[in-house]
Amino acid sequence: MRLLSLAAAASLLLPVTGLTPTRAASRPQPVDHALARDVKVTVLSTMLAGNPNRGTGEWGYAALVEVDGRRWLFDTGARPETVLKNAAELGIDLSTITDVVITHNHDDHTGGLLTLRRAMQAKNPAALGRAHVARGIFWPRLNANGSDDNGLLKDRAAYEATGGVFVEHAAADELAPGVWFTGPVPRTFPERNWSGARVLKAPAGDLEDNVPEDASLVIDTADGLVLVSGCGHAGIVNTVTYAQRVVRDAPLHAAIGGFHLFNATDEQLEWTAGKLKEAGLTYLLGGHCTGIEAVYRIRARAGLTRKNAVVSAVGSSFTLGKGISALSIAS
Ligand SMILES: [Zn+2]
Ligand SMILES: [Zn+2]
Fold first, then answer.
1. Is the dihedral of CA 326, 26, 214, 238 positive or negative?
2. Higher pLDDT, 268 or 1
3. Ligand 1 centre distance from Cα of residue 290 (Å)
4. Share of the chain above pLDDT 90, in %
């Protein structure tokens, strides 16, 4: 019963605009925490490869996030070896990173975790030994055949056997000054950016699997919020709305990663782009499941240019204060 009501609500409500008061992007809240100053995000897994002999594309996502001297691996790609090889070809050493962020259970984001942990552990026992996840990520997801499709649950014991530890976040947490892991994101708007094909075995009972654990990184800077998203199942507008509530009511400076808009309707894209424009979006490095057409639609609707709204490739990056390095394929 609940499955039908969720779907019906989504189809009825999505095209509606102006559901909340216009956010005052010009009047950010006072800052009650440290702001990040030095920020760089480099893409390690996405569909396109950016330069010759510098990485391989795949249906997946991963990125290196560097903030004020600290580094995180953000998701781990789909195929076991992709991020390992791409990082090597890009000259990036992952062995000095201790913390991984896993945005949700799908195996196009978790596929490299064990390979990377084992490979980097040989150089540094603490490498990639702590994985930040949101509450609910280990709840089973049953497919039509009744078997569990949870892409992380199947690797949990093996990761823990290496000495790895999962840190489960039930709410938004500041991982380092100005760097926030959202935890589960309230679904304020019915963006419905998931497949709907699985049953979630939640403690409260069986539900449609709307990927409730889907979480993002939000980096708070003097220029505004930098959002890094894996697959965007919670919805980019929901995530931004939540970030502006729990981190700071500041403009969305940059949106980086997968936003699951590849199969969105024209109306959904129009609504999403309008909301992002309202939020103050300045940079978009859209990769993975964002969809190429969606990047261009948002670029046009939000008034961005080919310099600051780009289809992401392996090796492409965003640097605070400098903007996007698109590499050859997307420049
Ligand atoms: Zn996903
Ligand atoms: Zn994905």
1. negative
2. 268
3. 11
4. 86
Between CA 296 and CA 304 the distance in angstroms is 9
Q: What distance in angstroms lies between residue 59's CA and the mean position of ligand 2's atoms?
A: 7
Closest ligand by atom to 194 CA? 1
Distance CA 51, CA 190 (A): 38
Q: Tell me how far the alpha carbon of residue 33 lies from the centroid of ligand 2, in angstroms.
A: 31
Measure 233 CA to ligand 1 centroid, in angstroms. 6
Full residue range of the structural domain in which residue 198 is found: 34-323
Identify residues whose C-beta is under 5 A from ligand 2, the ion.
108, 231
> What confidence tens digit (pLDDT) does each residue in 232-268 have?
999 999 999 999 999 999 999 999 999 999 999 999 9
Residue 292 belongs to some domain of the structure: yes
Report CA(286)–ligand 1 centroid distance (Å): 15
- Asked, for residue 148, whether it belongs to a domain, the answer is yes
How many whole angstroms from 321 Cα to the centroid of ligand 1?
30
Cα of 194 vs centre of ligand 1, distance in Å, is 7
**Chain position carrying tokens 């129009």:** 270
The answer to whether 266 and 46 have CB atoms below 8 angstroms apart is no
What is the CATH number for 58? 3.60.15.10
Given CA atoms 280, 70, 105, 51 in this order, what sign does their dihedral have?
Answer: positive
Query: pTM for the complete prediction?
Result: 0.91
How far is CA 141 from each of CA 81, 108, 138, 150, 207, rounded to the nearest angstrom? 25, 15, 9, 5, 10
In the reported structure, the alpha carbon of residue 46 is separated from the centroid of ligand 2 by a whole-number distance in angstroms of: 9
Q: How far is the CA of 108 from the centre of ligand 2 (A)?
A: 5
Number of structural domains (the chain) is 1
Q: Is position 231 within any domain? A: yes
Tell whether 9 is covered by a domain. no
